[in-house]
UniProtKB/TrEMBL annotation:
<dbReference type="Pfam" id="PF00106">
    <property type="entry name" value="adh_short"/>
</dbReference>
<dbReference type="InterPro" id="IPR036291">
    <property type="entry name" value="NAD(P)-bd_dom_sf"/>
</dbReference>
<comment type="similarity">
    <text>Belongs to the short-chain dehydrogenases/reductases (SDR) family.</text>
</comment>
<protein>
    <submittedName>
        <fullName>SDR family NAD(P)-dependent oxidoreductase</fullName>
    </submittedName>
</protein>
<dbReference type="InterPro" id="IPR002347">
    <property type="entry name" value="SDR_fam"/>
</dbReference>
<dbReference type="InterPro" id="IPR020904">
    <property type="entry name" value="Sc_DH/Rdtase_CS"/>
</dbReference>
<keyword id="KW-0560">Oxidoreductase</keyword>
Length: 242
C-alpha cells in the first residue's frame, strides 16, 4: 500500500525505533498519530501526539475513539527487560508478556474494525530474532516475542478477509539506547556494525509495507530463522552471525 496520504498510528514514539517510524512516515506523506505513555516526551514536529499505554484497556479504547481515520497500525512499543524465566522477577516477566503479547493484541482488537472501515490497510508488528532463538539473561523476552510471532501469524489469517495486510518486522539488534544499556549492564561487547541503525530499519520496514511484504528481515534475523530447522540446542541468539 502507498504510505503517501495514509494515516498511521505508531506506539512508543518517545524514543528508539518508534521515533524513527513516526518521522519516516511523516517524510513519506502520511498523517501520523505518535503515541506514548508520556506524550510530553514526544518530539516529532507535524505529528498528532496521543497518550497511550498499550497495556491499559481504557487507554487503548480512548486512542481508538480519537484515531478513527487510521489505516496503518505500527505496533512497536514493548517492555523488553524481563530477565530470565526461571530466576527472574515475575512482575517483570508479566510486564514483558503484557506489552509484547496482550498489549499488541489489545491494539489489534481495538483497531481492526477501524482498519476495516478505512479499506483494510496494514498492521506491522515489531518482533525480534529472539522469537526464533532465545537469549540467556532475557529468556522471558524471547518467549514473549515467540508469542507475538504466533499472534502475528494468527491475526494475518483472521484479518485477510477484511483486506488488512499483516506484516512482521523481525530485527536482530537495533542500535537504540535500550539495547546499548542492556549490553553494557550484561558486560557484552558487540560491535555496532552488526546492529541495524534505527532510521535505516524504519525505512526498510516501511518499504516492505509499501511492497506488500509479509515478513521483513534483516540479514542476521534471516540467519536466526534458519536455526529453526536445526536441533533445539542450537536456538541461541549468541550463536547467530558468529
Ligand atoms: N533494540 C533492539 O536491539 C531490538 C531488537 C529486536 C527487536 N526490538 C523491538 O523493537 C521495538 C523497539 O525497540 P527499541 O529498542 O526502540 O525500544 P525502546 O527504545 O526501549 O523503546 C520502547 C518504547 O516502547 C514504549 N513502551 C513500553 N511499554 C509500553 C506500554 N505498555 N505502552 C506504551 N508504550 C510502551 C516505551 O515507552 P516508555 O519510554 O514510556 O517506557 C518506549 O517508547 C520493540 O518492540 C523491541 O522489542 C528491539
Amino acid at each position: 500500500m502507498k504510505l503517501d496520504g495514509a494515516t498511521a498510528l505508531v506506539t512508543g514514539t518517545n524514543r528508539g525505533l518508534g521515533h524513527h517510524f513516526a518521522t519516516e512516515l511523516l517524510r513519506r506523506g502520511a498523517k501520523v498519530y505518535a503515541t506514548a505513555r508520556r506524550p510530553e516526551l514526544v518530539e516529532i514536529p507535524g505529528a498528532e501526539v496521543l497518550r497511550l499505554d498499550i497495556t491499559d484497556q481504557a487507554s487503548v479504547e480512548a486512542a481508538a475513539s480519537v484515531a478513527t481515520d487510521v489505516d496503518v497500525l505500527i505496533n512497536n512499543a514493548a517492555f523488553t527487560a524481563g530477565g530470565n524465566l526461571v530466576t527472574g522477577d515475575l512482575d517483570a516477566i508479566r510486564q514483558v508478556m503484557d506489552s509484547n503479547y496482550y498489549g499488541t493484541l489489545a491494539m489489534i482488537r481495538a483497531f481492526a474494525p477501524i482498519l476495516a472501515r478505512n479499506g483494510g490497510g496494514a498492521i506491522l508488528n515489531v518482533l525480534s530474532a529472539v522469537a526464533w532463538t532465545t537469549v540467556d539473561g532475557n529468556t522471558s523476552y524471547a518467549a514473549a516475542k515467540s508469542a507475538a510471532w504466533g499472534l502475528t501469524n494468527g491475526v494475518r489469517v483472521e484479518l485477510a478477509a477484511q483486506g488488512t495486510h499483516v506484516a512482521a518486522l523481525v530485527p536482530f539488534l537495533i542500535a537504540t539506547e535500550t539495547l546499548k544499556e542492556y549490553l553494557g549492564n550484561a558486560g557484552v561487547d558487540i560491535s555496532e556494525e552488526v546492529m541495524d541503525d534505527p532510521a535505516d530499519l524504519a525505512r526498510l520496514a516501511l518499504d516492505g509495507i509499501e511492497a506488500g511484504e509479509v515478513e521483513i528481515l534483516d540479514r542476521l534475523s534471516a540467519e536466526a530463522k534458519a536455526t529453526l530447522t536445526g536441533p533445539p540446542q542450537a536456538l541461541d541468539l549468541s550463536a547467530v552471525g558468529s
